[in-house]
Structure formats: C-alpha cells, structure tokens
C-alpha cells in the first residue's frame, strides 16, 4: 500500500500540464489534474486558438478588397459579431472536451476545482473540502493579464480575456500595449471595421524583436487603418454617458467605446500556497526553477508560463516532455531554448527565429552580415496597394551560419516554421544559396538574396 493518493498531481490543465499528465499516466502512474476553469488552459480557452479564429475572421475584409482587383464583384459585406462569437465558443468547447477526454483515455483523473498547496505533498481543492496527497507535484498554472492597478478608471477597461466575449462589436477601441497581444488585437478590430488606436509607452512596438521588423510592422499596420501612438501612456480613464475618455500623459484625450489593456501577463501564483510547500519565486514573481524545471521544493516541479522562461505553448509542451523523461523515465532531459521560432498574428503577420541583428552583433565576435529585401507581394499586383513584405537574414560572418531569420508579410508564420529547421540545424548562407527557389513564391526570396545590405564592419547605433 502506497503512502500517497497519487504518484503525480498536476495543478493546471493547460497544454503543458495535460501533456505531462498524459505521459505519466500512460506509463502506469496514478495521476490527477486539477483545473479551476476548463481543460485546455490559456492557449485553447483564452489565447492562441480563439485569437487565431478572430484573426481569420477579421482578415476577410482585406481579402475582399484584393478580390475586387482580380475581377470579382462583391456586394457590400456585413459581419455578424454575435454569430461569430457563438460559433467560436462552440469550437472552443469542443476542443476543451478533447483535452478532458484525452486525459481520461490516458488514465488520468481530471478534478474540477482550484487546487492550493497545503504542504509539499498535500493539495486542497478550495471550497470542496477535499484534500489529496501526491508523491510528486507539477505546477502548470500559466499566466494571467496584468493591468496597472493604480491607474484611475482602470476598472472600466477590459483585457484580452474579456475581449473574446464582448457582447457587441464596438465602433471605437483603444488598445494599450505593444506586444504580441496588443498588435494582434489591433489588427483584429481594425479588420472588423472598428476605429482602432494602439498606444504604447515605448519607442516602438514589439520590444525584443528585430528593429527592422518593429519599424516595418508599425508602418504596415497603420496602412491597415490602425492609429499608432508611441512614447505615451494613460493618465486616467473617464467614463461618460457617450463612452470612455482616455486621458493621455501627453495631454491629449481620445474617446472610445472600449479600452483594452494588453500590457503583459504575469505568472498565476496568487494564493497557490507556494510558501507552505517551500517553493520560492524569482524577483519577477515567477516560480523559480532549474534547467530541469525543478523548483526549490524537492518533490515539486513547474513548467510553462508560470515559470516565465519562454512563454509559448509549444515550449510548455516540450518542457512537459522533458519533465516526464527526467522524473519518470530516469533520463534527464532539458529543453533547448535556442532558435525557437515564433509568430505574431498581426496583420500583416510576423515570423521570426534566432537572433535579431542587434543580438547577433553582440554574440558573434567576428561580426555579422545582414541580407534584407522589401518588396510588394505578387498577390497585391492588381490592387494598387503599397503594402510591402520584409525578409531578413542575419549571418555570422566568421562561420557563415544563418543565425536569424525575420519575415513580415503574408504567410510569414507558415514560412518561418520551415526556416526554423534550417536555423536550428546550423545551415550556412552558402547552403541556403544552393537551395533552388520555388517560383513564383514570396518564400523564394529567402534563397535568392546574394549581397548583404549591411556588411559586418558596419555597426548600428
């Protein structure tokens, strides 16, 4: 008879937690997963998946414009927001059900309720007067939106999580933030015909991305109708009979129907009982882990956004696989965070992998060469559009390895997935050049850029 109710207790049924639970259960371990909302976590329920549906819905307006250039006569299109929301919610419920069903098929038990730690081996389900013990515990609670708590009137604003369920499509919206979520929702609402303003306190959007990508995207989203205000933030929000007045620090005021904050997400650790189990946090409030996702408590691990390492769903899944291999297969494994591709589903979208130019200049002692092109995609040839695509390769001068690929434009997320294979494999610029182009495509530009636009001895300010 064992001393514990379970071999593994997972707190959080998102992509990472579910993957770890299923793998352990398939190995014959006794596994339980507690989830206070619905199975699927941030990505499936309130993040990547519903967001991508909204991106696709909003992009149709742009496609209708392009179609007219190709000879199509299109009646004035209309958009039914309630119908879309209902259809989206039905699909999200279906996907959540699949996550729950897969846990059951693997032999893991799904417990509905908020789990908190009572000690290093004991978990309580809040409000249900139930406790469970486990030999090992995995925390995979993800993150939650952050809004400035001291901002006057912030209670009138919504976050991305509420934006998925707005009762009606606003006529005017102001989005505060400059990261993934902010620029994606700016494109969504602008595409659906909403008067959209994006305000960000920094000098340009997408902090941490390549500077050419940032500048190019900022210009392109303005072409799609988004008003971008940089170097500024809220002073206060005032609710009136006609809407919400955004009083900005530069003295200007903008009235909108909705104010959305996309100012970052923080690890979801509040009232989790970590201190009672000996689990320490970093200075930024994330769960402190080592390279094997092990916390400061001997029998507790943590993966995904709650650790604030690389907050991407595929990364959480790979961290889960590494955890399972390390803890239950006795084969220590750590995830390699180098050259992980990512996409921003802005309009136009961004795909990037590897080092930015600035990062490469710091990391590559022998200097770098930069290959870059901007061009109008063939798709826009008949439309009169001045939209431009950006493609950029960053090459280590000494080894000639392509260490960074950055794309802004149609199909960038699809292209970057394949480019990531080449970057991860360490292929050289000569090997890229030796690859025959597929014509006519936008992706062929990746293997036809011959001359650097900035040689290695040119340093940027």
What does this structure look like?
The protein has 461 residues and is α/β, with parallel strands linked by helices. 31% of the residues lie in helices and 24% in strands. The protein is built from twelve helices and 22 strands. It has helices at residues 15-26, 41-46, 48-69, 81-106, 160-163, 180-191, 211-223, 274-277, 313-328, 357-363, 412-425, 429-433; strands spanning 6-11, 31-35, 109-112, 115-119, 122-125, 130-139, 143-145, 158-159, 172-176, 195-200, 226-230, 234-239, 244-248, 253-256, 258-261, 265-267, 300-302, 342-344, 350-354, 368-375, 389-396, 402-408. The strands form five sheets. Strands 1, 2, 3, 4, 5, 6 and 17 form a seven-stranded mixed sheet that branches. It has a five-stranded parallel sheet with strand order 8-15-9-10-11. α6 (180-191) links the parallel β9 (172-176) and β10 (195-200). The longest helix has 26 residues, at 81-106. The protein starts with 5 loop residues before the first strand and ends in a 28-residue tail after the last helix.
């Amino acid at each position: 008879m064992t001393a514990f109710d379970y071999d593994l207790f997972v707190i959080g049924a998102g992509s990472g937690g579910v993957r770890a639970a299923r793998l352990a259960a398939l190995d014959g371990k006794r596994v339980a997963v507690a989830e206070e909302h619905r199975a699927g976590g941030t990505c499936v329920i309130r993040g990547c998946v519903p967001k991508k549906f909204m991106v696709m819905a909003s992009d149709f307006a742009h496609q209708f414009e392009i179609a007219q250039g190709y000879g199509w006569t299109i009646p004035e299109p209309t958009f039914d927001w309630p119908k879309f929301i209902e259809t989206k919610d039905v699909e999200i419920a279906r996907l959540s059900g699949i996550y729950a069903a897969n846990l059951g098929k693997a032999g893991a038990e799904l417990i509905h309720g908020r789990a908190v730690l009572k000690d290093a081996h004991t978990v309580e389900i809040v409000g249900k007067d139930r406790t469970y013990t486990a030999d090992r515990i995995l925390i995979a609670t993800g993150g939650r939106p952050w809004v400035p708590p001291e901002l006057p009137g912030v209670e009138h604003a919504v976050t991305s999580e509420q934006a998925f369920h707005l009762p009606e499509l606003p006529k005017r919206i102001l989005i505060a933030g400059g990261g993934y979520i902010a620029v994606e929702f700016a494109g969504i609402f602008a595409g659906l015909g909403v008067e959209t303003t994006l305000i960000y306190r920094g000098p340009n959007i997408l902090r941490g991305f390549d500077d050419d990508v940032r500048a190019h995207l900022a210009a392109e989203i303005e072409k799609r109708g988004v008003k971008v205000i940089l170097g500024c933030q809220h002073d206060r929000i005032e609710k009136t009979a006609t809407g919400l007045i955004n009083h900005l620090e530069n003295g200007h005021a903008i009235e909108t129907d909705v104010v959305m904050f996309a100012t970052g997400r923080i690890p979801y650790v509040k009232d989790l009982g970590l201190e009672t189990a000996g689990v320490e946090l970093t200075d930024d409030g994330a769960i402190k882990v080592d390279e094997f996702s092990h916390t400061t408590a001997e029998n507790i691990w943590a993966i995904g956004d709650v650790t604030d390492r690389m907050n991407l769903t595929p990364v959480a899944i790979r961290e889960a696989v590494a955890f399972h291999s390390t803890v239950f297969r006795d084969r220590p494994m750590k995830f390699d965070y180098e050259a992980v591709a990512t996409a921003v589903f802005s309009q136009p979208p961004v795909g990037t992998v590897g080092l930015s130019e600035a990062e490469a200049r710091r990391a590559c002692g022998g200097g770098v060469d930069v290959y870059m092109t901007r061009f109008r995609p063939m798709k826009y040839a008949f439309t009169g559009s001045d939209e431009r695509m950006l493609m950029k390769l960053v090459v280590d001068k000494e080894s000639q390895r392509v260490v960074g690929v950055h794309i802004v434009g149609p199909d960038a997320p699809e292209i970057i997935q394949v480019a990531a294979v080449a970057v991860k494999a360490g292929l050289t610029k000569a090997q890229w050049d030796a690859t025959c182009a597929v014509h006519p495509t936008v992706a062929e530009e990746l293997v036809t850029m011959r001359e650097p636009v900035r040689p290695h001895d040119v340093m940027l300010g």
